[in-house]
Design brief:
heterodimer, A: 87 residues, 1 helix, 6 strands, 10% helix, B: 927 residues, alpha+beta, Ubiquitin-like (UB roll), FAD/NAD(P)-binding domain, 7 domains, 20 helices
Chain lengths: 87, 927
């Protein structure tokens, strides 16, 4: 079980958090249809680190972004979600 | 000759094995006590029913599996080496009939040819009749202990702990690591699978070890403050997971032993540690030769353990076979205990510096001889000649395998060490360090290639009866990868997970393939390290505590009517309110007819409810909902649905405009948490600029739907208000309680959802119940609710909206906002979603009951065209109706199909219709 250092609450067990998706698969309303569909179905899925949107659903309920290695599960950083990250 | 106690008394603890009463000393393991009482035959093997004894002294024991305890406390497949004898312990052998000594199943050994590697695989690929033939025979013959059938009377619990350092293993290395961590001011949890730290150490010289009968003095640890050190004994670190998270299984009593009053029998610890020290030691490896599984063939260090720790000499005339120096210590110990060392067979050409007159070099065991009573002799090739030794005990040492399980579970790499012929921990992925024998500090061994004259009786995996011949056969049949070998032969898949066998198999595989051992590979180590009981995993979450029960605010109102309760997610809701002697179906039909003819009330409190408020409330709802929201007038509501990003229907419900910037959104009960997360995602992630707040109010309000031809009149009578028009709303007071009335219909009749603060809602229910009863109506439950909504053709999330259906598939396409701009609008443009042969919502009618979940076919044996999603009876007329998803359904109206459920033997002839069977124009709910 991962240990996630919530930027609002500190270190809490993974059981309190819910994974949402990688940042590159977020679809905004202004994206053309083809771009939106590509982001949903043709994801980069890199080996190693990726940026993931999580929610501290059973804690502060805020949206956070983990930079997590999906092979080793090492977490490089946890920051509050900022819409500017989508740019 | 067999094992015996050397010196001292027999002990005072009474126990029995297969009904034979015996005595044991305090501190004896069952294995030690059996050996002390001269019991050499303890078990029959899994497949061939070979007579087996005790091979090891620790948890790696592959042979001596017994059933311990009685009644609900029965624990099968317990290693005799891993249970301490207590007064009254009852143990039984397994997999033998009529008795261990005379076991008829041993004829399986004669069928070894058929039960060899790949037996199941080959059988399953053959004609089905072959498996049918073998199955009964195998199920009876092959096996381990039997699971208890009585309820477990005991309590299990889960606990959490945090520490700076988790030390696994209380041997010399582990104690030293714990001591160093304490000195550095770190908080330590020390885990030891035996009764006390330091008992299982291989290092004989440490002064703290002496006096092995008494618990050892762990003075340095004893001085530590309780806050800083927690020592968990009889505890196994069974899993090492991410980020320093470990699961530890603690036994507070032995298997089958009644606990102290009020105490649990086992505790599963969840420990989070900053760093972890693995001092898990090493496991001695058996040698491979014919008959190496006989009782009387033991691991060399195990022999030493029984003598030194338990004063038990497992045999009198002992042959020692080794490829390393360590086993020479065993010779010394046996002699000191009064046993005779017949020979030391050292496979190395130059032997050991410790060698004595009984040592033979370049000596390899070829076969062990004996039978059910035990070992009688050993044949060896010494130099060029073959020699036979009479012996009742063979102590073997094939080297040492560091216990790298936890290191590997935590993602650590492994490295091959040629000098010890074993894998040792390499780079760790987490803050995990291995020390001592676990890190490879074990005696070096000679790597020798031995010809096996009789591979069919040379066991590699003792517990699963896998022989060297099986490994060879797998290779011959093309299984090159060790992962394939494992699955083909079942090697390493027994309850011991190959602790003593995996290396021997790898050696054989590498030898056959002519590749270096590291190239042969290694299977993945997975938790648990030793078997866990299901009770420990469940903890306190068993029985009625498996899931929390969510009670309705109006629970008391329902309970006095003695309903049939139905779990729905975590909620428990009334399914029907049967009268005395009434069946569920009859009750539901009576209730549904009341709604169609007079009036009924139903508890709809569990619907998800969200208060959406703020200047941009409508804007947020337009992003979430796929239907028009902006034009909704104050005081009005609408049906709506929400999509996932891929265009599939996520949920449906209603949206109400309570005030200028004040909306109430309802959605399905089961999707409440999902909808809460979705609303938050759309707002906080996709549209954080919107000035709106969303509050989930599912449990804030209780909801009662009042439905039926008399509903409007009864509402006026009870609330003293003019009933709002369909999809309108009103506020009023019922029984002194403020209520919000939403005129929505799910049943197809004129209906009102009456909402009141949850803690005040009882009197509202009472008033409405009295009113409906007065006109001959009644409360109705989920079953009647289903009959009514199916007849009306309403979809349900989970049945019709099953995550694969678009609004178009469900006949909701016309309600979609053309301009888009909602979640799912982009995903809906995918060409495949426009295909005409997609499953589409239709209705079905039939004279006979339509089986729910049935497949729709044109005729028996035809291709599946779709399936029945919901089915029920007509409420007032005869016959049955259903809604279904049917390929190209819109073009098939009027066709006759068959709804068939072959597994249940149910079928019905059905006619395809529009999915609406009651009041298609909605005349009944408009005034």
């Amino acid at each position: 079980m991962l240990l996630i250092d919530c930027p609002h609450c500190g270190e809490h067990a993974q059981i309190e958090f819910v994974y949402e998706r990688t940042l590159d698969s977020i679809v905004t309303f202004d994206m053309p249809d083809e771009v939106a569909v590509a982001r949903l179905y043709a994801r980069a899925n890199p080996i190693g680190f990726d940026d993931e949107l999580w929610r501290h659903a059973y804690g502060c309920r805020q949206w956070i972004v983990l930079r997590r290695n999906r092979r080793s599960h090492a977490i490089a950083s946890v920051v509050a979600y900022d819409p500017a990250m989508l740019a | 000759m067999s094992g015996r106690r050397i010196g001292g008394a027999a002990g005072t603890l009474r126990f029995s094995f297969d009904g034979r009463a015996m005595l044991a000393r305090e501190g004896d393991t069952l294995a030690a006590a059996l050996l002390a009482n001269g019991v050499m035959l303890v078990a029959r093997s899994f497949k061939y029913h070979r007579p087996r004894g005790i091979m090891a002294a620790g948890v790696e024991e592959p042979n001596a599996l017994v059933t311990v305890g009685e009644g609900g406390r029965t624990e099968p497949n317990t290693r005799a080496t891993d249970v301490y004898v207590y007064d009254g312990l009852v143990a039984r052998s397994q997999n033998a009939w009529p008795s261990l000594a005379i076991d008829l199943g041993a004829v399986n050994g004669l069928f070894a040819r058929f039960l060899g590697a790949g037996f199941y695989y080959k059988t399953f690929f053959g004609p089905p009749s072959r498996w049918m033939l073998y199955e009964r025979f195998i199920r009876r013959a092959a096996g381990l202990g039997k699971a208890p059938t009585l309820p477990d009377p005991d309590r299990y619990e889960h606990r959490s702990a945090f520490c700076d350092v988790l030390v696994v293993g209380g041997g010399a290395a582990g104690v030293a690591a714990a001591r160093a961590a304490l000195a550095a001011g770190e908080r330590v949890v020390l885990v030891e699978q035996e009764r006390a730290p330091h008992l299982c150490s291989r290092e004989g010289g440490d002064s703290e070890l002496h006096g092995h009968h008494s618990l050892p003095r762990t003075s340095a640890l004893a001085e530590a403050r309780a806050d800083d050190l927690r020592v968990l004994t009889r505890t196994t670190a069974s899993g090492l997971w991410d980020h320093g998270f470990a699961t530890l299984a603690e036994r507070l009593v032995e298997p089958g032993q009644p606990p102290a009053p009020g105490q649990p029998v086992q505790r599963l610890w969840h420990v989070r540690a900053r760093r972890i020290v693995l001092a898990t030691g090493a496991i001695e490896r058996p040698l491979t030769f014919a008959g190496n599984d006989l009782s009387g063939v033991m691991l060399s260090q195990a022999v030493r353990t029984y003598v030194e720790r338990f004063d038990v000499l497992p045999g009198q005339r002992v042959v020692i076979a080794t490829n390393n120096d360590d086993a020479y210590q065993t010779a010394d110990v046996i002699r000191a205990a009064g046993g005779e060392v017949v020979a030391i067979l050292d496979s190395r050409a130059d032997g050991s510096a410790n060698g004595d007159a009984s040592t033979s070099t370049d000596a390899h065991v070829v076969a062990a001889h004996g039978g059910a009573p035990g070992l009688t002799g050993v044949t060896a090739r010494v130099g060029g000649e073959t020699r036979r030794f009479a012996a009742d005990l063979l102590a073997m040492s094939g080297g040492f395998t560091p216990v790298v399980h936890l290191h590997s579970q935590a993602g650590g790499a492994l490295e091959w060490r040629e000098d010890i012929q074993a894998f040792v921990p390499g780079v760790s992925q987490q803050a995990v360090t291995s020390v001592g024998a676990a890190a490879g500090e074990v005696p070096p061994i000679a790597s020798t290639t031995v010809d096996l004259p009789d591979p069919k009786h040379s066991f590699v995996d003792f517990q699963n009866d896998v022989t060297a011949a099986d490994v060879d056969l797998a290779w011959t049949e093309g299984y090159r990868s060790v992962e394939h070998l494992k699955r083909y032969t079942t090697l390493g898949m027994a309850t011991d997970q190959g602790k003593t066998s995996n290396m021997a198999a790898l050696v054989r595989l590498a030898q056959t393939g002519g590749v270096p051992i590291p190239q042969a590979g290694l299977t993945t180590y997975r938790p648990p390290y030793t078997p866990l009981t299901l009770g420990a995993l469940a903890g306190a979450d068993g029985g009625g505590h498996a899931a929390p029960a969510r009670r309705l605010a109006l629970w008391g109102c329902h309970d006095r009517l003695v309903p049939i309760w139905q779990p729905l997610g975590l909620w428990h809701r009334p399914r029907a309110y049967p009268l005395a002697g009434e069946t569920l179906h009859a009750a539901a039909m009576r209730e549904a007819r009341a709604v169609r003819t007079t009036a009924g009330i139903v508890d709809v409190s569990t619907l998800a409810k969200f208060a959406v408020k703020g200047p941009d409330a409508a804007a947020l709802l337009e992003l979430v909902c796929a239907t028009g929201i902006a034009k909704l007038a104050v005081g009005r509501g609408r049906y709506t649905f929400m999509l996932r990003e891929d265009g599939m229907v996520l949920d449906d419900g209603t949206v109400w405009r309570l005030g200028e910037a004040d909306y109430l959104l309802t959605s399905s009960t089961g999707g409440a948490e999902r909808m809460e997360a979705h609303l938050s995602y759309v707002h906080r992630v996709l549209a954080p600029h919107l000035r709106v707040s969303v509050v989930m109010q599912q449990e804030h309000f209780a909801g009662i739907a009042l439905a039926g031809p008399q509903a409007a009149r009864l509402l006026g009578q009870v609330a003293g208000i003019a009933p709002p028009a369909h999809m309108g709303l009103a506020r009023g007071v019922i029984a002194g309680v403020a209520v919000l009335v939403l005129a929505a219909s799910y049943s197809g009749e004129r209906a009102f959802e009456v909402y009141a603060a949850a803690h005040d809602a009882g009197p509202v229910w009472d008033a409405l119940e009295a009113a409906v009863r007065e006109v001959g109506g009644c409360p109705y439950g989920l079953e009647a609710l289903e009959f009514l909504r199916i007849e009306k053709g309403h979809i349900v999330v989970g049945a019709e909206a099953d995550g694969r259906t678009t609004p178009g598939d469900l006949g909701l396409g016309r309600m979609l906002r053309k301009a888009g701009g909602f979640v799912g609008a982009q995903g809906l443009t995918r060409p495949a979603l426009q295909a005409e042969d997609r499953l589409q919502l239709v209705g079905l009618v039939s004279d006979s009951p339509i089986p729910e979940g049935a497949i729709l076919v044109a005729g028996d044996g035809g291709a599946a065209l779709g399936h029945v999603t919901s089915a029920g009876p007509r409420v007032l007329e005869s016959g049955a109706v259903a809604i279904a998803l049917l390929a190209g359904g819109g073009t098939r109206l009027g066709e006759t199909l068959v709804a068939t459920s072959p597994t249940r033997g149910l079928r019905a002839k059905v006619t395809v219709t529009a999915p609406m069977f009651h009041d298609p124009d909605g005349a009944r709910y408009r005034d």
